[in-house]
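Hi all, a correction to my earlier message: I attached the wrong file for histidine kinase. Here's the right sequence:
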Amino acid sequence: MEDSKGRTRRQALTAYALLALAVGQVAVGCVALWVSQVPAGELVRYDMVIDLVVGVAYPACGTVIALHRPRNPLGWLLTLYGLGHAFTGLSIGLGVAGTRAGWSPEVLHALTTIGRHTWVVGSETALAFAFFLFPDGRLPSHRWRWVLIAQIVCLPVSLTVLGRSDWGLFHGTAAQPSYIPVPDGWLPALQNAETAKACLVLAALFTLLSLRYRRGGEQDRRRLLWLITGTVPLALSVVLQIFGLPALYTSYLTLFVPVAIAIAVLRHELLDIRVVISRSLLYGVLTLGVIAAYAGLVTFVQSLLAPLPELVAPALVTVGLAVGFEPTRRLLQRMVDRALYGDRHDPVRAVSRIGERLAGTGMAAVPEAVGEALRLPYVQVVPKSGEAGADWGAPDRHTHTVPLDYDGRCVGELVVGLRPGEQQPAPADLAVLELLAVPLAAALHATDLSRQLQQSRERIVAAREEERRRIRRDLHDGLGPTLAGVAFQADAVGNLWDFDPERAAGLLAGLRTEIGGAVVEVRRLVDGLRPPDLDQLGLLGALRERSARLSWRADGSRVSVRVQAPERLPPLPAAVEVAAYRIATEALTNAARHARASNVDLRIEIGDGLRLEVCDDGSPVGEETAWQPGVGITSMQERAAELGGNCVAGHGRVVALLPLGGTTS
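and the right structure:
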C-alpha cells in the first residue's frame, strides 16, 4: 500500500537496506585499512579512499531521492553507483589486510578481481544512465534509447581498459587481480576506442541536456542548472588531474554531483541557482581568461622586446589587461545574463518577441513568450472584462502584479511568478515588465473591443431574426387570415350579385369592415418597424411631442422639459434618427420617473456627428443623482455602439455621440 509520497513499504525497506549495505562495506573497508596499519603517507597509493567516500555519499543521496520519489529511477541509480565504488573500496581494504595476514591466494585474487571491475560497471551503467534520465527518469523520446544500448554494448571494452587503471596496486602479490585478456597489440586500439566512445557519449549527453533546457519549462531549466552546478567541480577535478594533482585530492569534487541531483529532484526551488551560476561563470571565465591572456601576452611581448624583457614586457601586458578587463567583463556578463535571465537586459528584443506572438496566435501565447523571454516560472494575463485569462508555468506563492492601463483605464493585470529566492522583482525585470505592459494593455483593449463587437453582432443578428419572426407571425396569424377572408367574401359577392343584390350588399359592408381591419393591422406592423412620429413630425418634432407627454408626473407634479436644437436639422440616416429618438426618449423617461427633477434639458448639436445630451436637476442638495446601470442605460449604450458611437450615462446626465456615416433615407 502506498503512502502520501507514493512509496510502498517494500520500496522503503529496499532503499534502507541498500544504504545499510553500502555503509557496511565502507565500514569494513575502513576497519581493514586501520587493522593493516597503513601509514598516512601511503593512502595516496591506495585508491580505496575515494571509493569509500563515494560509496557513502552517493547511496545516501540516492536513498533520500528513492524515499521521496520512489518512481524516479535516479535515486536507485545513484545508490547502485555508490555500491559499486563501496565494494571496490572494500575489496582493496580486505586485499591489503589479507595480504599481510596471509589469506588464501585464491580468495584474495577473486576478491580484488571482482572489486577492480565493480566501479567500472557502476560508472558505465548506473551513473551514465542517471545523467541521461535526469531529471524525471524518462528519456525525451525513444530515439535516445540507442545511446543507452550502445553504452551497455560497449561495457566489455570499458571493463578491459578501465579495469587496468590500478597504478600497479597489489603487483607481485597474491592479491594481484586478473584482467580481461587482450590479444597482443590490441590494447592501444581498445584504449582509443574507449576514448572515442567516451567523447561520443559526452557529446550525446551535452546535446540531450541542451535540448531539455531549450524545450523544457521553467522547473526543468532550474533542475538542469543545479546539475550543471554539481558537474562543474567534477570537470575541474579532471583538469586538475591532467595538471598532475593527485586524484585523492581532486576526486572529492565529484561529491557535489549527488548533492546537486538530490536538490534538483527534491528542492530545486531552494534558491535562485541562476545567481550562483551567473557569478561563477562570469568570474571563473574572466579569471581564467586573464591568466591565459597574461601568460600569452608576456611570452609574446618578451619575444618582441628581447633586450629588456624583464622591464618592458610586464608593464605593457599589465596596461593591456587593465584596458581590456572591463569591456571583457561586460561582454561576459551580457552573455551569461542572456543565457540565464533571457532578454531582460534587452527590452526591445523582449517586446519584439511579444509582438510576434501577438501577431501570430494572439493573447493565448503571450504568457509563454513573456516567461521564456525573462526566464520566469509563472506568467498570467488577467483581463478586467471577466473573460478567462491565459497563463503559463506553475503558480508560486511569491508573485508580482503589473497593472495594464490603456487610455487611463485598467484593462487587466500581468501576474508574474518570482524566481526561487527572490522576494521582489529585480529592477531590470521591472523595467522590462513596465515596457511590456504598454503593448499588452493595447492588445487586451483590442481583444475586448473585438469581443464586444462580436457580441454586438450576435445581438443584432438575434434581434433581427426575432423581429422577422414576429413580423412573420403577425402576417401569418393576423393579416393573412384577414386577407383570405376578404378574398372569400369578394367571391361570395360576385356569386350573389345577380340573383340576391340585398345579400350581396350586406357582404360588401362586411368586406369593407374587414379591409379596414387589415389596414389597421398593416399600420401596426409599420409602427413596430419605425416610430411613426419620426416620419410624421421629424426627429425634432417627435422629441418635442414626447417631451410634452412627459411634462406631468403621475403624482400631478410638473416637469419642465426644454429642447435646445438647431432650427432645422440636415437629412439624417434613418438608423441615426431611430437611435437618437430611442436614446432621448429613454433618457427623458428616466429623468421624469426616477429623478427628483423639475427641469430637464435636451440638447442636440450637429458637427462631425450628432451629439445628444439630456441633463436634469434632480440631485438633492449637496449630492448628485446616483445612476444605477440597468436595462435602460445598457440599451442606450448598445444603440450607440451599434452605429460606432458611444453613450455615457451617470450623475443626472446622458451624453450620446452618433456618427453620421452611411446613407440617408
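Sorry for the mix-up. The first strand starts at residue 378 and ends at 383.
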